[in-house]
Queue: 2 jobs
Job 1
Amino acid sequence: MPTYFDTIAMNFANVEVGPDGIETVQFLQAAEALSNMFTLFNSTAFSVVQSDINGNIKKLRERYDATGEKSRTIEMLVVNEQGEKNRTATQGLLWLNRGLRFTYVGLKHSYDHADSALSESFNISYGETLRAHHSFITRGVFSVAVRAVPHRASLLKSLGEPEDRVLQQLDEWLNALGQLTQRIDKFFETSDYAKGF
């Protein structure tokens, strides 16, 4: 029986990273697959994150469609947009990466701590990734959402069977996602092109 990871169009583990950076189209396809994963959880807890991720993917895709080869990689896309008044795609990448990082930290904590509740894993993740960037009202929304996440066993079952295969694929996917989000974080921290965000 195919697992979620067998059926997605692009896995983070297969996103190409070359001398010029992270391949834009592949990265966006993998991010879309992550967003679609939330629907498997049968929970409205992640609807805010899912909507945010989808909105930011749209901003990046529109920029890519408008500029093509100049935005072949995520880094080139940001460089290409630097001199413009409205840097919608750059801001979209920043927030997309924050949403991806939130998901990564939550699922990684759950993967590493099988005895912890999934809600605890995502509560820890929220504190580490998004909380500092949210208003008091948004923090309240997330607090309620995180408490409503499904149990870890339900999450794993929704990703397919057998569980040992799902866990192996999840580990590979998480490692790749973690490396990509770290690379983007570093780009924002060290690049003059990403200053001001």
Job 2
Amino acid sequence: MKRKSIFLFGPRGSGKTTLIRHTLPDAVVIDLLESQTFRYYLKNPSLLAEQTKAPLVVIDEVQKLPELLDEVHRLIELEGLTFLLTGSSARKLKRGGANLLAGRAWWASLFPLTSTEIPQFDLLNYLNRGGLPAVYPSKDYGEELRAYVGLYLREEIQNEALTRNVVAFNDFLELMALSNGEEINFQSIAGDCGVSPNTIKNYIEILEDTLIAFQLKGFTRTKRRKAIARSKLYYFDIGVTNTLARRGDILEGSELFGKAFEHFIVLETRACISYARKDVSMRYWRSTSKFEVDLILNDQWAIEIKSARQISDKHLKGLRALKEEGVIRNFAVVSCDPQERKTRDGIFIFPWKVYLEKLWQGVFI
């Protein structure tokens, strides 16, 4: 069977180039971040046909030159070439009318390092540093993160002219980091940033298109309790979130630890679903009467995330309220409680390590 071409998108610094070098040593790599290479193909995209004898052609940062995709399309059709097309932003491709190959290439994502990719994984280290490959092992992870945030603002926003008002966008980035994992209220955010609600919608689109953040939509299929439909916004990496929010050190047992712990479980679940290539939707549920559940996976699992060391009835109110609706099959809490167990009414209590083991084994997806 012929190998399928692939679009591989991941945020800047997530390790796409390193992964290619280590796993595809025989591939021809065309790096469009190199100015000479960029100019070479800018003048004449048809020069790509010179690679017809290559078993695999990698075009790194393909969004820099969307015009190449017409030639990629032609070479897939006529020459049977296989391409790996990587990028750190889908904005120019999605909104610029680029040739997306009409199903001739699969789409895949690369995320920061997950717990399964880090030997001797340390939760507190991860909640402070995040999972960017250059950041997590660094002794100067704070400096690395500040440099990353500056690089993103300079290259992705200023150089690509995604917005003219960089100052307002920077304020927006910091505000969204402070409210990471909270419901998006366009009117309130617009007032705080001094711009219009439509501008905030555009800013959020920029974050999603450049893979810096994603929305978690509300689960609204409950009938007894009216659900809120607003989305939540999560950044793609905990360390980047910490830096933008100027959090300082996250200490075990603190309020910030709880927020970062929830963020970690959401990110880990998202990465697992994507890497397993499963069609599983992630949502959250909140009723107008203030009951809430952090994660809904299809209609199979409702998962509450608590950093508490001992789970008690007060932590189960949201799950029990949702359980009464009869629309979800299984219910669980993921926490720092060391004891795995099941309540009398069928709610699973999973220590976070157990949850991650089961998650990557496919139990929840």
